[in-house]
């Protein structure tokens, strides 16, 4: 796995922060790969959710993340928790940024 890969979360994977929300099938692009420092460590990847996934995020998750100062538009997962897709990531950067701002603003009214 490398930066720029478009990935999908495997079935049964929950968010690592709250372990409450099922992220199965969510998609995004890898923005960072934090390689294991030793054979016992696992590789962690940072993923920016795509627009389709951002629209599916549970509103309670967004609200809780905003309240706790945690980014809801990105996540760190183990590399074994995702699969690399053959399709390419095609989201418009500005459209994604605007959606993140809108979701954050909307979370105040939940």
Could you write a compact summary of the structure shown?
With 110 residues, the chain is an alpha+beta fold. It contains 3 helices and 5 strands, in the order βββααββα.
Structural summary, described in words:
- The protein has 110 residues and is α+β, with helices and mostly antiparallel strands.
- The protein has one domain.
- It contains three helices and five strands.
- It has a five-stranded antiparallel sheet with strand order 4-3-2-1-5.
- The longest helix is centred in the last third of the chain and has 14 residues, at 93-106.
- It is globular, with a radius of gyration of 14 Å.
- The N and C termini lie far apart (37 Å).
- The model has no long low-confidence stretch (mean pLDDT 91).
Secondary structure: elements and pairs:
Layout: E1 6-9, E2 27-34, E3 44-49, H1 51-56, H2 59-68, E4 74-78, E5 82-84, H3 93-106
Antiparallel strand pairs: 1-2, 1-5, 2-3, 3-4
Q: Kindly report the spatial arrangement of strands forming the biggest sheet.
A: 4-3-2-1-5
- What fraction, in percent, of the residue positions are helical? 25-40%
Number of domains: 1
Unreliable residue runs: none
Strand tally:
5
SS-based class = alpha+beta
Mean pLDDT reading: 91
Rounded to the nearest angstrom, the distance between the terminal CA atoms is 37 Å
């Amino acid at each position: 796995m490398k930066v720029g890969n478009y990935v999908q979360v495997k079935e049964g994977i929950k968010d690592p922060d709250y372990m409450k929300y099922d992220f199965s099938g969510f998609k995004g692009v890898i923005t960072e790969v934090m390689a294991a420092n030793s054979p016992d460590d696992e590789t962690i990847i940072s993923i920016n959710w795509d627009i389709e996934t951002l629209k599916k995020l549970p509103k309670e998750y967004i609200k809780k993340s905003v309240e706790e100062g945690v980014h809801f538009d990105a996540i760190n997962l183990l590399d074994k928790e995702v699969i690399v897709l053959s399709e390419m990531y095609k989201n418009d950067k500005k459209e994604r940024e605007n959606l993140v701002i809108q979701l954050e603003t909307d979370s105040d009214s939940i």
